[in-house]
Structure formats: structure tokens, C-alpha cells
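Progress report, Aim 2. The chain analyzed during this reporting quarter is listed below.
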Amino acid sequence: MKKFLQLLLLVPTIIIAQNSKPNIVFLLVDDVGWGDFGCYGAEFNETPNIDKLASQGMLFTNGYAACTVCSPSRAAILTGKYPARLKLTDWIVGHNRPHAKLAVPDWNMRMEHKEVLLPEALKEVGYSTAFLGKWHLMPIGQDDFEEHYPTSHGFDINIGGREWGAPRGKGRYFSPFDMPNLDDGKPGDFLTDKLTDAAIDILDDFDKNKPFLMYFSYYTIHGPVMSPPELVKKYKEKAKTFKNTKNQYLDPARAGMVEKLDNSVGRILDKLDELGIADNTIVVLTGDNGGNYDETTGGLKAYKGFSHEGGTREPFVVKWPKNIKGGSTCDEMVIGTDFYPTLLDLAGIEQKPKQHLDGVSIKSLLTGTSKKIKRKELYWHYPHYHRTNPYGAIRDGNWKLIEFYEDGSLELYNLKNDINETTNLTSSNPKKAALLLKKLKAWRSSIDAQMMTENPNFDIEKEKLKKRHY
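Predicted C-alpha cells for the chain:
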């Protein structure tokens, strides 16, 4: 009887724990290619912890970033809106191409306070929120600089987030780091490790009676490519005998950065287990744009900055024990804007349709109640110069159309038959190209996308000199 009474006393606690909203750990990796992790085909890079995460959740094969560069993709995740709708369409502050054929529009270089970001929506229902790592959503040297740190946009804690798009401390990825609320540690300390130390401390310190969002936005694998000497040595040795049958990027320093990332993911997952909260924690892992080299994209065409699949298709993994079947895969198209409504939906929080206008909840895909979602098209709009000329793109089912703004040229691909985008079908299927172009233009008009204009300072010879630097 005594034991029975003791069990009765435990029942309310158990019920509360089961009915509490899930915690969320969002892991965003910089410049990670579709082929950088073992679960997506990598063999040179070693990612046992990330592969384990994928085996415990759902892996998407058609997961996309909302832009081919960082700041717009990050804004899309946090707002649930396409970068074109936000008018935040390039990395802050973008490239300067004063003599290019087209002039870049007067685009937005900050996260506007009128947007209700994901952490703000979660705080409304009692979540604690913490941000770690790369922010890159604030102006540089402008009057309202101080008003745009993560802590001004819904995060209770900011570790490392500032205007930087890459580490710029004296040691870059090594101490000293010169980042907000992150101690420099000792000489030789590595940035990914130090941010993970902070993440572990935060997990320990979160109020155990409240759900939390930990948004860990890694600076890695963005350049400068740097890695601890012992890992560089390890992968140099591995490269000597590695049979590179998949044209993988055999950079020992970069492989070491990936290993440090994987170790970080493993430490965080272990801490969730140690705290006994893993079963009630949603873990998301994705990237902001394609890898920085051809060989990092799993055989896809092009890479970061380009309009093709290598610039936008991303690792996309979601784990939530007992709710998402471990080892499952999904081929449905999903994109960064979908995280906002999906996480609210999974947590049983009322949607904010006026905020996450372009996102779609993919809860039904994750929980296995459906294999399809109603949305058919995905869109991209990049009215800027980077490694490629300005472009727009649409993916409609298996079809993808790219429109280049300088000359109106088109590229049409059937990704089901040609995932590597080797054969432009515009000439052989002009009706499909025309239909998709019509949809793309209608979408741009519907969201008031900023367009480029003729540049009165266009100088082809000066532009050729400028292009040499890209």
C-alpha cells in the first residue's frame, strides 16, 4: 500500500511531463553541402553522430534552403517568409558591382522588428530561448546597430551572435574569438568546441519547468577553413589511401571542421539524454546554403551562390522520439520557410498565418499521417551578383526553371530524370518553360519582389576586371 501511495504521488508529475510542450533544439550549419554527411553519402568526412541522429528521425531528400547565400536563408527560417517578401535578398552587406549590367535594388539589410520571429512566437507561450553562433541579420555600422542583436528579436540569451558572417577574431576559429558573451578560453581553443561548451551550460541552466528553444547557428563550415592540427594530420593520412569514387572534397582541414561539428552534435544529443529530456525534444539539423565547393554537394550541379541544386539543396533532418519514426525518409519538397509553422504545429501552438506566409507545416509528413503536402511549387529570387548572374527560379513538381535577369535566358530541367541538371530542355519543351516562367513572374508580382533595373554606370570592361575577384 505504501508503494502504491508513492506511485499515486508521482502521477501528477508524470502527467505534467507528458503534456508539457516539447523542447526544440535547432542546429543550423553554415555552408554545408548536400553531400557533406555520411547519411547523405559522404565517405571521406566522418559524421557518426549526425548519421545516428538521422537514423533516429526523418531524413528529407528534397530539403532546400530559401536562398543560395546565408542572411536571406536565416531570415526565412526565423520568419517563415521568402527572402523576396522580406526584401532581404542577399548576404549582409552583399557584393559591390557598380559597373554591372543591372543595378541591385535598395534591399533590406536588417531583420525588421515588425516581424514576429520564431523565438518571439515561442516566448508568447512560455518558452525560454537561447541563441548561439552566427547571427548575420543586422546592419554594419548604422545608427540602429545595437537594436538588432538576437536579444532584440526574441532570444533571452545570445552567445556569439553579431554582425559577422564568419569568424573575424584574431584567431578566427581559434582563440581569441572576440564574440559577445563567449569567453576566449585558452590559446588553441576551437570555436565550435567553445560554443558547444556554452550550449551544454545553457541546457543545464534552463528552467526545468519551462520548455525551451535552443537555436545553435554554427559558424562552421564557413571559411576560413581551419582545423586543429591533430585532425588535419588525421585526414591527410586518410587521403593518402582513400579511394575517391564519388568525387568528394578531400580537404583535411575542412574534414576536420566537419568532425568538430559532428562531435558538437553528439555532445548535445548526449546532454539531452543525460537530462532525461531527449524524448520530449525536437531536434532539427539543416543548412543555410550549399557547400562552398563543387565536390561538397553530393554530385549536384554547382555550389553556394549558384542557382542550381548544389547551391540550394540541403541536409534536412528532424528527430522527435515516439512521434517521428526513426530511420524514415521523405522525398517531398520542403524548404526553410516551413520550419516556423511546423514547429508551432508540432508543439500544439496556434499558427500565425499572417507571419509565416510562405511556410507550410510538414507535421503530417513527419508523423507519417501523409506522404504529400498541398503545396506544389517552391520559389527563389536573387536580384544580386555573386558567383553567378542574378536569377529567379521555380521548382514545380519534378520540373525546375531558372530565369537569368540580365538577358532573360532560361534553363529548364526535369530533376526526376536529371538531378544533376545536365540537359537544358527549354528548346525541346518550350510550353513547359513558358508555363513555369508565367508562374514565376506571377509569384514575384504577388509578393512585390524587388527587381533590378538598367545600370546607367554599366561598363563592360570594368565589370570584367571586377569579376576576376569572384
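Residues 381-467 form a domain with the Arylsulfatase, C-terminal domain fold (CATH 3.30.1120.10). The CA atoms of residues 49 and 265 lie 6 Å apart. These observations will guide the mutagenesis work planned for the next reporting period.
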